[in-house]
Amino acid sequence: MKKILLMIMALGLLVSGCVMFLTILLVGSASAQNWIHSTDGNREGKKIYDLYYNPNFQKTETGTTVMKVKLVYTDWGNQCEIKDKPFLLHEPFDYSIQTWEFDIEKNTMRALRYIYFDSNDNILRDQVESNNPATWFTAKPGSMAEIWMTIAKGYITNSSPVGEKLKPGKEEVKEPVLTPDQRFNIFSDRVNVQANLTKIWGTPKLYIFDILIAQNGRQFKTGTGIFGARDIGEAVSRIKKSVGWKDDYLFVTSECGGGNAWRCDVDHVFSIRRDQLIYVGSIQGGEKPGHNYKNAYFYDTYDRLEINGLTTHVGAPGIGLVMKEQDGHFIVDLDQTWQINVERYKQNLEDIRGIKGSKYDYDEVRLRIASIVLFNAVLAKYCRHQGEMIQAIKEAKSLLKEDDFENFETLVYGVVPGELPECEEKYDSCFHSGIN
Predict the structure, then answer these.
(1) In principle, which of 92, 147, 266, 302 could form an S-S bond with 319, CB 3.0–4.6 Å?
(2) Are 319 and 408 contained in the same domain?
């Protein structure tokens, strides 16, 4: 009977076909706890997870019972996400440990804590739910909660011994204590990457870290600003996920602490050549390290005109760049760059024809016109498409007022075909002056 109940529990943990994801900092080692395998979780005939439980239940001072379960996931791709819950973890993890509290007399239950881990037992996120009366919910007849409650009753009836008492609804959560200049490891695979907290600033908090990348006595130093983390533990967790290899390249993400600049977050790119760590350059950051590296190409954004007096930031010409690495440096592939931008170029031509064929108030459409003609002219010059550049300049002259056209000409004149983003020079100088 107990085995049947455990199988029901495995099904009950899938709510509406989705597993709820919550996370936080583990107290002690997850592997050190006494987990007993219960059953497998399956969907459409495919195994999703193994379910374990901890037989050492804990009684609280108010008579409720605390129980822990462990889910080890085997098929992340068959899971789904509940996207309207801001606390959910939208990324693969290896296993989770969940702590639940049951009030058998009231037939209610609540989640105390969810912790999600990667395959190296690193905590991805930790969410504490206890001490909030609103989190208690009633196990209604026929509901999943009733199934969980039934299992809890069965465990409580047959379990022995009872663990040490806890304060009502509490579970100890220890936060890591980091002091300035205290280095900690965040990555070790062919290179060693360490970080140290240098400053905590503002409300909400901005956690600022130095990052050191080292291999065979050669070191590079950068930094990152983690904004929006709930606590220092979450900030550290984000840093640990900001480094990774993709093919022969190491990507180290440097967050800017929040902002709308195109290259606010960047991935610093390294490689090992002749057993020496080299810095290749930086590219625009993405959802994870190396997000903008695909099929041996690096993707970035031309940002030298991001702030300009003609279009402002809103209409600035954000040309997508396609780059390859050559002899330890980025080289822009002008043909590929033209190809990924040409559809917008063509659409701009259609928009120009539409504007010319209509009556309009210049002040009302000025920004739109300036953005269109500047994008086309900058793209054409950058990619060395002479004919298209001449056409874009003619269109600009026919549509822009004199002062705006003079500003336009100055901006286009400053474009250098194949040049790297402006930020690249700053990072390159910083890194190369920091080599030991």
Answers:
(1) 302
(2) yes
C-alpha Rg value of the chain to the nearest Å: 28
23/136 same-domain check: yes
Nearest partner of 123 among 86, 96, 99, 98, judged by Cα: 96
Alpha-carbon gap, residue 267 to 300, rounded angstroms: 10
State pLDDT tens for residues 26-60.
222 333 456 665 555 554 555 555 666 676 667 77
- Report residue 64: phi and psi, to 5°: -80, 170
Domain region containing 119: 2-166
Does any domain span residue 353?
A: yes
Residue 254 shares a structural domain with residue 336: no
pTM, full prediction: 0.59
The answer to whether residue 363 is domain-embedded is yes
CB–CB of 271/328 below 8 Å?
yes
* Helices and strands (H, E) in the chain, number of each type: 8, 21
Spell out the alpha helix ranges (H) of 357-421: 362-382, 386-399, 402-413
Answer whether residue 436 is part of any domain.
no
DSSP line for 352-366: HHHHHTS---HHHHH
